[in-house]
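Q: Protein A?
A:
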Amino acid sequence: MWLGSVPVINEGDGLRDLSSLRVLRCGAVGQTGDPFEPYQVVDAGGVVVAPVAAYLRDLQACGRPAATQRSYAMDLLRWFRFLWAVDVGWDQATRVEARDFCCWIQLAAKPGGPAPGARYAPATVAHCETVLRGFYDFHLEAGTGPMVNPFPLARGRQGRANAHHNPMEPFGAERTGRYRPKVPRRIPRQIPDEKFDELFAGLGSHRDRALVAFWVSTGARAA
């Protein structure tokens, strides 16, 4: 099977016809049953993709749960499928490939989507861009990847996002990646006023009521 895309006009160097690009659904993310390596990304021949395995091992050392490693592995598989389609090695990828990939994934049909022609959600695309930038940052530090991260930061920004953030102030909505799409804000979940009144009246002490009133008034939420 292949994942089609609609016509896209590229600009700059390395023009690529994304409208005729066929990205095969080759390779897979497999569960191993090994607690030290819960998931692997393999290519079309069933061979483990070594640079991804190294990155996933680093994530596990940082305490990332298996579910997070699987999510990251799925994003990396999408990237490697694209690279295999354009015949570019992962360590030879440039910002041209990163740009074209981010164009393609926003317009390509999602395999196994709820309806024919369904596309990836903006949150999925944004997460994928973040994962790939982290993947190349890891290999850049290890000296095993390209000299420049193919997924650059947004223009006019240098360094880590919110590096000098004042903890007494709310975080700003920074688009750290140049090719990171804007993700719509989610409407916070809430309960009707009458249900909150019932909850508040059912609290057994003034201390509990004071704590709930404080949490609600400050907009606090569970971490």
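Q: Protein B?
A:
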Amino acid sequence: MNHSEINRGRNVIYNFLSKSLWDIPDSNYMSMFEDLHLYIFELLNNSDNEDLRRAGETIMIFRKDNMLQEEKSQDEVILDLSKEYTRLFYLGVHSVPVCESAYLSPMKAYMQEPWEEVKKVYAENKFMPENKGNKPEDHISFELLFMSFLSQKASIEAEQNEYSELTYIYQKQQTFMEEHLLKWVDELCEKILSICVKENSLYAGIALFLRGYLHEDYKFLRDMTL
């Protein structure tokens, strides 16, 4: 098993999922989407996980109906996605919270105990991401970016044959999943899917991708830390 290559892939996927839910998409995001679409489709379509297969089908339909339409410019695609993102996460009647505290804190409010906990974990691991939007650190995109950050470190340790350190990083990721991501992401994804009505919704595909990938990656981490 090539752990360096595996973790480069994990780094890419977590980074992609993080950016997909960070904010209204821009041209940089669309370029990343196009650069990665073949890799993503191969991963999703070859999986035994139902969520991942459905994600592949949904995202493929989105790309065919939007990115591959000659009469539709990239600016128009971005505008449509911006409207959907805003409806889902900002202004909709049933807008979806994207921070852990809104799901797990007793008050169901932002910047509560889970927010304090993840900030402590980030500090312990010297994870200091740029935060231009001043979003809470328990925002889903930050938590996914933290997984990407650790996967990148794991890839480096594997290249240097530092397998004890590699296992330690896997243990950190497993713990972070158990104490944070896996406690609330299923509910987040279900809320997104309940609002997305179009079969070609990119965000429905991202929600399925996120839910399926987290559970499959958790299995991987559990196997690696036995």
